[in-house]
Design goal:
The chain has 24 helices and six strands. By secondary structure, the chain is mostly helical. The chain has three domains: about 300 residues, no CATH class; about 100 residues, no CATH class; about 80 residues.
Length: about 550
């Protein structure tokens, strides 16, 4: 069942049909979406800051077993992402590019693995279309550029599912063992999620195929579980010997069971959260997804479609019932959607359905300088007012020109390209335009507003070389740029004369209030943050 096979020919079809040009186009999209300006913007808090500070402390301490953040054990994630980041830092130095490189490489391998799988199971045009859609979707490119664990995890989840389906067609032992290898690496990256979905989906799929015996042989293969344990087990044993049960209680009970049963870090949402979020996650391909949905009714008749839909629906249903909700959770089940969209690509014939979402996004980005002044900021939140003012300054004429040009090109492709490219092909080209606008015009400015001052403050503090502490502010990327742990006042040590204090500007008044009689000097203030140097003539003060 391949809806693309009966479509009329278009000039671009020759590019998609040939393996060499198609793969070249995919690699070009990867360079644009994942690597272009990868090291330009500063690290963002909290996610990148937390991961990269843990990596920095791992290198500084020489403890490659237990990750630490700000001197305290960090039990949020297993160790593999820190090892990968540390390896790149050793090779290329402590900088944004090196810290983000593992994610960009993992995401590239993820896309190329999809291309290989789709080409084997379907054909080269479908593989190329699926890989391009995946690389150019906004959420995939975001995690590919972020120094966090998600791109690495999604690579191993996808490799596991691809080998599970290959095993269903050809139940060779080697394919099952390879799936255990990927699950072991995924478990070393982010824990149980790497084995939960593959086991659930494979059970339903194999039973629906009448392949219960093959499922049993694979699921209870002793050598497979030995491979899994050999990959993941040594570090889990090592952290237990290093820390006792602390990691297991925090990671498995709080960060896994706790995320499903309750809300963690305020990331809540209703049951319908992902009905609204999924179309945004897949931008600019929202209309393509909507056109795909009717094929679900007849998907059961085709084994590949059935497998891909089961993969997506298992993830969608599980996280819809979860207490903690974050947009990137949907990526665990997004890989099959890209293959399905590509396989049924010529069902997408309605230009308005296809092009309205990306054109709307580009129009909103163009109107952003007019929208921001309408935002009301409370008087007790000066840091937000400072960021808003800085944002308005950076959304200058050059920003309008860059986004406006992107919108004009997208409009031209959408409505003037009917003779030489199909709707889905033009949508992919618009995806390249969206990617260029988002990472060329928008993201550098947004992160400069939010994180540029934090980076500058860290570099200033590093240059001064004073004892530096943080006061009621959680921005761990500051420690990365300072290249030192910054103790938290009140929990890790009291304030002391001569301290350099890093804080948000809305905490300045509070800091002065707990330092009666102690002189202070604001030596750096930009955007939402400041550095305050305390006088040296008084005793230490514990707020």
């Amino acid at each position: 069942m391949n809806a693309a096979s009966s479509a009329p020919s278009a000039p671009l079809d020759r590019v998609f049909a040939a393996q060499g040009p198609g793969l070249t186009l995919v690699i070009a999209a990867l360079l644009l979406a994942f690597f272009w300006q990868l090291g330009g913007p500063p690290l963002y808090d909290l996610d990148e800051g937390a991961f990269t500070e843990a990596t920095r402390e791992m290198i500084a301490s020489g403890n490659y077993i237990t990750p630490h953040k700000n001197g305290e054990p960090r039990y949020d994630k297993p160790v593999l992402i820190y090892w990968l980041q540390a390896g790149c830092v050793h090779l290329f130095g402590l900088n944004e590019w090196a810290l983000r490189l593992p994610s960009a490489l993992a995401a590239s391998a993820w896309v190329l693995a999809l291309w290989v799988f789709a080409r084997q199971r379907l054909d080269t045009p479908t593989a190329t279309a699926a890989a391009l859609a995946m690389a150019l979707s906004i959420q995939v490119s975001l995690i590919a550029r972020a120094a966090v664990a998600d791109a690495v995890l999604n690579l191993f989840i996808a490799l596991t599912f691809f080998d599970i389906y290959r095993y269903s067609l050809d139940p060779r032992r080697a394919l099952a063992l390879r799936a255990f290898l990927w699950m072991g690496l995924g478990f070393l990256t982010k824990g149980p999620v790497a084995i939960f979905f593959p086991l659930v989906v494979s059970t339903v799929f194999f039973l629906s195929q009448g392949q219960g015996r093959a499922l049993w042989r694979a699921a209870f293969n002793p050598l497979g579980w030995l491979i899994f344990l050999a990959v993941a087990g040594p570090w889990y044993l090592a952290i237990y010997l290093d820390n006792g049960p602390g990691f297991f209680a925090s990671f498995f009970l709080k960060h896994n069971a706790g995320r499903f049963g309750g809300t963690l870090h305020g990331h809540s949402g209703s049951f319908f959260y992902y009905f609204l979020v999924l179309p945004l996650v897949l931008l600019p391909f929202t209309g393509w997804l909507l056109r795909l949905l009717p094929t679900l009714r007849r998907a059961w008749a085709d084994p590949l479609d059935r497998f891909l839909w089961l993969w997506f629906l298992a993830v969608f249903a599980f996280f819809s019932f979860s207490g903690t909700k974050l947009p990137h959770y949907m990526l665990y089940g997004a890989t099959p959607l890209f293959i399905l969209m590509a396989r049924h690509r010529n069902l997408l014939t309605n230009a308005w359905l296809a092009f309205t979402p990306p054109l709307t996004l580009l129009a909103l980005l163009l109107a952003l300088p007019e929208i921001l002044p309408l935002i009301e900021v409370r008087e007790d939140r000066p840091q937000q007012a400072a960021m808003l003012a800085e944002g308005l300054r950076l959304l200058d004429r050059s920003y309008r020109v860059e986004v406006g040009l992107g919108l004009i090109l997208a409009l031209a492709l959408a409505f003037l390209g009917r003779g030489w490219a199909a709707v889905w092909q033009r949508l992919l080209l618009i995806g390249m335009i969206q990617t260029t606008v988002v990472y060329g015009a928008l993201t550098p400015r947004v992160l400069e507003v939010m994180q540029g001052p934090v980076k500058e403050a860290g570099l200033v503090a590093k240059r001064l070389g004073l004892p530096t502490v943080v006061y009621r502010t959680s921005m761990p990327s500051f420690s990365v740029y300072l290249e030192a742990i910054t103790p938290e006042i009140g929990t890790q040590r009291p304030l002391a004369p001569g301290d350099l204090v890093f804080l948000r500007i809305d905490r300045l008044e509070s800091l002065v209030g707990v330092l009666p009689g102690v002189s202070h000097d604001v030596i750096f203030r930009r955007g939402p943050v400041a550095l305050v140097r305390l006088g040296t003539g008084s005793e230490g003060v514990a707020p």
